[in-house]
C-alpha cells in the first residue's frame, strides 16, 4: 500500500495520545532521519507513541492495512532499521523510562530508552548490565540482536541478561514473556532481533559493577601494530572475565581525551575496562601498558558512566556509514597481517576498525539457550566505513569495507547479527545458522504476514528444500 486516505490517517491520529506525522507535516523530514545519513527512506506515517496503548493502536492500524512496520528506538542501526519506505514507523523515542529494582537486581526499561538512560539509573545503585559502547545507542535494537559491550566477558551479552519482556505482536496482542510465560518467544527475542513485535518494556538482570571501574585507552602508532597486536593476543589469551578490551585501528579522532598533536595520525589503540579489584587490574595490565613507548595511556579509575560515553563523539549522527563484520577465532599472525594491511588503507578520518575481545561468560552460555550465534568466537572485527555526506565519493569508502571483508572471510567462524548491513536474506540466514529453522517457526506463529520486516528479517515465507 502506497497511499492512505486522509480519513484513515486522521482516525489513527485521534486514537493516539502521541503525535502522528505525515509527509505533509513540516516535521516529517526531521522525524524520518536516523543516525546513518546514508539512509533516505520515506514512510507513509510516523507514530510518536507515548504509551503502550499508542503502540497497540499503531500496530493494529498497520496490521489491518498490511502496512510494513519499522520500530524506532534509538535509530542507531547502520542498516536504518528504524525507518521504512511506504509503511508505518513506530517511534518509541518518547518512551524512555527506566525503573531499577535494587533488591532483585532488575532494570525495567521502556522500549525507546537509550543506554545512557539505563547506565545513569542503574549506576545510582552500583549496578549495571552489559550495554553498548555508545551511550546514544537504543536499548531495543542492541538488546534484541545480542548486545556486545565492555562488561560482556564478565556479565554475558545483553541478551543473556534479558529475563522478561512486554511486547505488542503483529495482531495487536499485548504479551508478557519470561521463562515461564512463552519461553520460546523469550528465546527468540534473545538474539532474533525485532522480528516478533514491538517490545515496549525490557527486564534486565543487573550486576554489582562500579560506580568506578579501571578504564581508559592506550594508544600506539600504527607502524608498531603488528608487534603490539601479537603482544596483546598473548596477554588476553588467558585474561580473567573482569577484563574487557576493544582494539581500534584508525586515524586518531579529535576527542578531548587525546592531545591535539595526535589528531589525524594513524594509530592502534586499546580501550580497557577492568570491572574487578583495581589493584589486580593494574597488575594484570602492566605488560600491556609497558609495551614499547605508548603515545598515550589514560588507564585509571573512571566512573562507569563516563566510560560508556568515552567514544560517543567518534560516530556522530548524520554522517554516512557502511560496515561489515566477521567473527573469528584467534588473532593469528595471518589475521594480524590482514588487519594491519587494510587498516593502513583506511579512507576517512571517521572510519575505524574496532576488534572486540569475546569469550569469558559469553562462551559459557549453552548455544541452545538463546537465538544468538557464534558463542565460541574469540573476537569480532567491524570494518567501519564512514564519511562526510555530499562528497560524491561513497563508492571509495564502500569498496574499502568490502575488500577488507573479503580478505577476512577465510578466517570467519560466524557473524554478529547486529553488525549486518546489506548482506540480504542469505546473510541473515547464514548468521543464524542452525537456529534459522526454529526462528522461522516462531516467526510464522507470531508474525505470519511479516509486518515486522524492517530488521534482520526472518522471512516466514521462505522455504528451502528440507524446511518444514
From TrEMBL:
<dbReference type="InterPro" id="IPR016167">
    <property type="entry name" value="FAD-bd_PCMH_sub1"/>
</dbReference>
<keyword id="KW-0274">FAD</keyword>
<dbReference type="InterPro" id="IPR012951">
    <property type="entry name" value="BBE"/>
</dbReference>
<dbReference type="InterPro" id="IPR006094">
    <property type="entry name" value="Oxid_FAD_bind_N"/>
</dbReference>
<dbReference type="Pfam" id="PF01565">
    <property type="entry name" value="FAD_binding_4"/>
</dbReference>
<dbReference type="InterPro" id="IPR006093">
    <property type="entry name" value="Oxy_OxRdtase_FAD_BS"/>
</dbReference>
<comment type="similarity">
    <text>Belongs to the oxygen-dependent FAD-linked oxidoreductase family.</text>
</comment>
<dbReference type="InterPro" id="IPR036318">
    <property type="entry name" value="FAD-bd_PCMH-like_sf"/>
</dbReference>
<dbReference type="InterPro" id="IPR016169">
    <property type="entry name" value="FAD-bd_PCMH_sub2"/>
</dbReference>
<keyword id="KW-0285">Flavoprotein</keyword>
<feature type="domain" description="FAD-binding PCMH-type">
    <location>
        <begin position="39"/>
        <end position="209"/>
    </location>
</feature>
<dbReference type="InterPro" id="IPR016166">
    <property type="entry name" value="FAD-bd_PCMH"/>
</dbReference>
<dbReference type="Pfam" id="PF08031">
    <property type="entry name" value="BBE"/>
</dbReference>
<dbReference type="InterPro" id="IPR050416">
    <property type="entry name" value="FAD-linked_Oxidoreductase"/>
</dbReference>
<keyword id="KW-0560">Oxidoreductase</keyword>
<protein>
    <submittedName>
        <fullName>FAD-binding oxidoreductase</fullName>
    </submittedName>
</protein>
Amino acid at each position: 500500500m502506497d497511499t492512505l486516505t486522509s480519513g484513515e490517517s486522521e482516525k489513527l491520529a485521534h486514537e493516539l495520545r502521541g503525535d502522528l506525522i505525515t509527509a505533509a507535516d513540516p516535521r516529517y523530514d526531521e522525524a524520518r532521519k536516523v543516525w546513518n545519513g546514508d539512509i533516505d527512506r520515506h514512510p507513509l506515517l510516523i507514530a510518536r507513541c507515548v504509551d503502550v496503548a499508542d503502540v497497540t493502536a499503531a500496530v493494529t492500524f498497520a496490521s489491518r492495512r498490511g502496512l510494513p512496520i519499522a520500530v524506532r528506538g534509538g535509530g542507531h542501526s547502520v542498516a536504518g532499521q528504524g525507518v521504512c519506505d511506504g509503511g508505518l514507523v513506530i517511534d518509541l523515542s518518547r518512551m524512555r523510562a527506566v525503573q531499577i529494582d535494587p533488591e532483585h537486581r532488575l532494570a525495567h526499561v521502556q522500549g525507546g530508552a537509550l543506554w545512557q538512560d539505563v547506565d545513569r539509573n542503574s549506576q545510582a545503585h552500583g549496578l549495571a548490565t552489559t550495554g553498548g559502547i555508545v551511550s546514544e545507542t537504543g536499548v531495543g535494537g542492541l538488546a534484541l540482536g545480542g548486545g556486545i559491550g565492555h562488561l560482556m566477558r564478565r556479565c554475558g551479552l545483553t541478551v543473556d541478561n534479558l529475563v522478561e519482556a512486554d511486547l505488542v505482536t503483529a495482531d495487536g496482542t499485548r504479551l508478557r514473556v519470561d521463562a515461564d510465560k512463552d519461553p520460546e518467544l523469550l528465546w527468540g527475542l534473545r538474539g532474533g532481533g525485532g522480528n516478533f513485535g514491538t517490545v515496549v518494556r525490557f527486564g534486565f538482570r543487573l550486576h554489582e559493577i562500579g560506580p568506578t571501574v579501571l578504564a581508559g585507552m592506550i594508544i600506539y602508532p600504527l607502524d608498531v601494530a603488528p608487534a603490539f597486536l601479537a603482544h596483546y593476543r598473548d596477554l588476553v589469551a588467558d585474561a580473567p572475565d573482569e577484563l574487557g578490551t576493544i582494539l581500534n585501528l584508525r586515524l586518531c579522532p579529535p576527542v578531548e581525551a587525546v592531545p591535539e598533536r595526535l589528531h589525524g595520525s594513524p594509530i592502534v589503540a586499546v580501550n580497557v575496562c577492568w570491572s574487578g579489584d583495581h589493584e589486580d587490574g593494574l597488575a594484570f595490565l602492566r605488560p600491556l601498558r609497558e609495551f614499547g613507548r605508548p603515545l598515550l595511556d589514560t588507564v585509571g579509575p573512571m566512573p562507569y558512566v563516563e566510560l560508556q560515553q568515552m567514544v560517543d563523539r567518534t560516530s556522530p549522527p548524520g554522517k554516512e556509514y557502511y560496515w561489515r563484520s566477521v567473527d573469528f577465532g584467534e588473532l593469528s599472525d595471518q589475521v594480524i597481517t590482514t588487519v594491519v594491511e587494510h587498516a593502513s588503507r583506511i579512507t576517512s578520518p571517521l572510519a575505524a576498525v574496532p576488534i572486540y575481545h569475546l569469550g569469558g561468560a559469553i562462551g559459557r552460555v549453552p548455544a541452545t539457550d538463546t537465538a544468538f550465534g557464534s558463542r565460541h568466537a574469540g573476537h569480532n572485527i567491524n570494518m567501519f566505513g564512514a564519511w562526510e555526506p555530499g562528497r560524491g565519493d561513497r563508492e571509495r569508502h564502500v569498496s574499502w569495507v568490502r575488500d577488507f571483508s573479503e580478505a577476512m572471510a577465510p578466517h570467519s567462524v560466524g557473524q554478529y547479527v547486529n553488525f549486518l548491513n546489506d548482506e540480504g536474506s542469505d546473510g541473515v540466514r547464514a548468521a543464524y545458522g542452525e537456529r534459522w529453522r526454529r526462528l522461522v517457526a516462531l516467526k510464522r506463529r507470531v508474525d505470519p504476514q511479516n509486518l515486522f520486516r524492517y530488521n534482520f528479517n526472518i522471512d516466514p515465507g521462505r522455504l528451502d528444500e528440507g524446511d518444514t
